[in-house]
Every structure is written in C-alpha cells, then in structure tokens.
C-alpha cells in the first residue's frame, strides 16, 4: 500500500497521468437494459491530502467528487467498441484498481488489474454460416457474484443457483421479428425442502411432480388429475373422469383386522367385527 500511495502522490504532483496508474472504484453499476450493455465504470484518483478511508466512505455514500479527479467511462476490457463479450471482471465499489490507457489516448481508459471483485461475466460467441449468407450466433453466458450463479446457453437453457434454491429452465427463444416473449417449456426448482418439476404448454402448467420430505404430489392438466402421497394425509387418487386400476389381484388392507381382496373371478371382503356395503 505504501508503494501505491507513493505513485498516487507522484502523479498528482506532476499533474499528469501515466499510461498506468492506481485509482479507487467510485461507480460500478451498468445499464443492463441497453443492447449491447456498455460495461464501463468510474474511478477516483486520490489527491495528496486525501485519505483512502475517507474517499471510500464518500464514494459508497454516493457523493460526487467536486475536485475533478474522477474519470468516467473506464472500460472493463481493452476494446474500444461498445459490444459486450469476452471476460468481464466487475470490481468492488471502493476497491483499488490499476487503470491503463489505450495508445495513450485521452479518455480511452480500461481497468488492467483488480484488488477485489464483485462479480464475473463470461460471454463466448460463435457464428456459423447458414443458407443464403445468413449467420447463426451461438453463445454461452456465465454470470457469477455473491448473490447468484447464472448460466445462459443460446437463450434455450438457463440455470441459476442461489443460496436459497437452484432453478433450471428449458426455454423456447422469443422471435424478435414478432416481438414475442420467451416461453418456458419445462423447469426444475430445487430447495433444501423440496424438488419440483413442471411442464408447460401455451404458457400454462400441464403437469407437475413435487417431492418433499414427507409428501409426493403428481398433478396433470392443471390439478384435474392428482396423486398425493403424504405421511399426514395418506394416499389420494383424484380424477375428474375416472380412476382405473389393473392387476391380477388387488389387496386393500386397513389396519390389522380389515381386508378387501379383489381378483378376476371373485371378490372377498373380510372384517373381524362387521362388513357393510352401501
């Protein structure tokens, strides 16, 4: 830290910036609605009379620097183009970074080294030739931070992992020409207490399988048909049409004293006290 402090004092004393210099991250949020996203940050250069702790406290509180030693549009990769791609390292607010310039051009700055990271973004793309000169772009996007791990493959397979749950989705990509939204085909949601599988059609749930510690539930056609196995509730077979069981022999046992046997040729009902059929 003493060496960094010395470099800061020297660059401020000379009133000029070298090709690479230390700075403090003062803004690291992006407009994710823009297409493509412009991954740029702002950094604060310390003056000789300023302390690191006071400046970090100031930038985290959102105060602007009135002394003019703040640089904006510092890129998180060396490319001068605005398209996102490659590996993006997102530095932590208030952390040290080393800022470099591209061909010593004023205003063309990028972060070349980090001390602390808040997240990572990896975007790998590949173009394949199609008929009539069209190109198809395949991509894998990976996001990692303290809140979540996210994976996006061609907008067809998506996964997200947080400390609360894991979510996996198979998705029908939207058609840009028609302005459609993406459509989920199936998903899996896993928490520490339950696992749920769902299948969709026309954006409506068609069937669900849910596993819990003491319960198993299967639903089809939006709860019109249901099988529920629960330690508290027992076994439920539900249908708005009919329930059909096929077997060479079906045995129903209630406790230790009651029994019902049904075979292909005979029906036997036994009870220690009484048998009643309505």
CATH architecture of the largest domain: Alpha-Beta Complex
CATH topology of the largest domain: Outer Surface Protein A, domain 3
| Fraction in beta strands | over 45%
Q: Residue ranges: pLDDT <50 for 5 or more in a row?
A: none
Please describe the topology of this protein.
Elements: H1 2-14, E1 20-27, E2 40-44, H2 52-60, E3 70-75, E4 86-91, E5 96-101, E6 109-114, E7 117-129, E8 135-145, E9 149-153, E10 157-161, E11 166-172, E12 183-190, E13 194-201, E14 204-212, E15 215-220, E16 225-230, E17 234-239, E18 249-254, E19 258-263, E20 267-271
Antiparallel strand pairs: 1-2, 1-5, 2-3, 4-7, 5-6, 7-8, 8-9, 9-10, 10-11, 11-12, 12-13, 13-14, 14-15, 15-16, 16-17, 18-19, 19-20
Fold and architecture overview:
Strand 7 (117-129) and strand 8 (135-145) form a beta hairpin. The protein starts with a helix and ends in a 7-residue tail after the last strand. The mean pLDDT is 82. It has three domains: 2-121, OB fold (Dihydrolipoamide Acetyltransferase, E2P); 123-246, Outer Surface Protein A, domain 3 (Alpha-Beta Complex), CATH 3.90.930; 247-278, no CATH class. By secondary structure, it is mainly β. The protein has helices spanning 2-14, 52-60, and strands at residues 20-27, 40-44, 70-75, 86-91, 96-101, 109-114, 117-129, 135-145, 149-153, 157-161, 166-172, 183-190, 194-201, 204-212, 215-220, 225-230, 234-239, 249-254, 258-263, 267-271. The protein has a twelve-stranded antiparallel β-sheet with strand order 4-7-8-9-10-11-12-13-14-15-16-17, with no helix packed on it. A five-stranded antiparallel β-sheet has the order 3-2-1-5-6, covered by helices on one side. The radius of gyration is 31 Å and the shape is elongated.
């Amino acid at each position: 830290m003493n060496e960094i402090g010395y470099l800061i004092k020297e660059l401020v004393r000379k009133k000029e910036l070298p090709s690479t210099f230390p700075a403090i991250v003062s803004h690291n949020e992006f407009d994710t609605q823009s297409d493509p996203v412009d991954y740029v940050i702002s950094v604060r250069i310390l003056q000789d009379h300023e302390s690191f702790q006071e400046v970090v406290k100031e930038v985290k509180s959102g105060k602007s620097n009135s002394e003019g030693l703040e640089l904006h549009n510092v890129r998180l990769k060396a490319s001068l183009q605005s398209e996102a791609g490659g590996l993006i390292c997102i530095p932590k607010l208030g952390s040290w970074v080393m800022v470099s310039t591209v061909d010593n051009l004023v205003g063309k700055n990028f972060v070349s080294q980090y001390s602390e990271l808040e997240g990572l973004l990896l975007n790998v793309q590949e173009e394949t030739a199609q008929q009539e000169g069209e190109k198809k772009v395949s991509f894998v996007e990976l996001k990692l931070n303290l809140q979540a791990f996210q994976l996006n493959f061609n907008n067809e397979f998506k996964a997200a992992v947080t400390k609360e749950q894991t979510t996996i989705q198979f998705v029908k990509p939207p058609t840009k020409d028609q302005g459609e939204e993406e459509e989920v085909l199936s998903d899996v949601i896993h928490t520490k207490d339950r696992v749920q599988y769902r299948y969709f059609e026309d954006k409506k749930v068609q069937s669900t399988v849910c596993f819990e510690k003491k319960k198993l539930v299967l639903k089809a056609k939006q709860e019109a048909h249901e099988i529920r196995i629960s330690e508290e509730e027992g076994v439920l077979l539900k249908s708005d049409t009919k329930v059909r069981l096929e077997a060479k022999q079906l045995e129903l046992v209630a406790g230790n004293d009651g029994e019902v046997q049904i075979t292909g040729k005979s029906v036997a009902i036994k009870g220690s006290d009484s048998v009643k059929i309505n």
